[in-house]
């Protein structure tokens, strides 16, 4: 009889385990090697999926190369919406980069990034919302998303991820992001804070958030582009003064009867339309842009050169463009060997896109146009907040970022001063008594990679 009783317990436990795996999904898988990288990866990489309602969210997790049980844990939210976590992994703060210097075709070569944030932090990169990267939905309603729903999705993901990774529940946690995700970030922070207060488990040890060139207030950002164009000497003083007077400082949704304003804005547009607005010092490469309407044309161009991208006629430096990296990641992420190495579920995503324009234009509803109130609320919670911007970025002008930070009416502790890298001025910063740090960097929109 004792033997039969023990056998019943084992069977019962096995059924419970199977049920748990069915409901929550299998834990992540360790990735030791990646196609394009020579040898074993010099860091711990895990990939997997977390199920949230009808969403199967793909993630990459890189454990800190320092002290993973002491170093902070970050979730890094890429902008878009609908831009893959791989862009953050390769182009922003992750441990690998593409070798663009010697690329001659075929599967791109991967190199170790010695400046990765994973030197001192563990980072989760998420493909969110559904239709982004390798993430997919099991029901049709999972494909429709809003700003607020995206924030809730990320929050639920994090709670579930920590259930499978309990050793990270006690260490400091930060939300990090760039560009469009800037409007999602404070909402995610509020969701986490409110969830902790409501007693949701596991507890997330939220300490603050970090955002680079953060989209925060749509109208303010659009209205700041004309003043920034003048500051950057892209338009003349006379044209700027004329537009300021005729438009009364409002350069968005202009009254159709205000002909002088419309005329000035048309002149300004002629001056800046051929400029790379992400960084005015970089060449404009529309065909290679992840947000270009010609992404399919770009893909066809590449396929026309190959049986899967053979040797090119010359090295990439002969026609260099910074966002040529987007072509390389497109080649890499759509390779079946790469998908197998990353443990991507077969048959779930036919084609991987850097940024999913169909999601941006059809599936996604933009329902938050300013996040300033969220910041105002969070400054009272004792969280640490770091905002950094590029001074050559016209997508999210630093002027608008300074304005909404000033609108919070917080007391400045450290006034505007330069900060240095290897003895050279790299930008300027100030800080406040409520733990808001504002950095301005000598770069464009991709501030995280500098």
UniProtKB/TrEMBL annotation:
GO molecular function, one term: serine-type carboxypeptidase activity
Gene3D superfamilies, sorted: alpha/beta hydrolase
InterPro entries per record: AB_hydrolase_fold, Peptidase_S10
Keyword entries, A-Z: Signal
SUPFAM superfamilies membership: alpha/beta-Hydrolases
Signal peptide: 1-25
Top-level taxon of origin: Eukaryota
Pfam families: Peptidase_S10
Gene Ontology BP term (one): proteolysis
Family: Belongs to the peptidase S10 family.
Name listed for the protein in its UniProt record: Serine carboxypeptidase-like 18
Organism: Populus alba x Populus x berolinensis
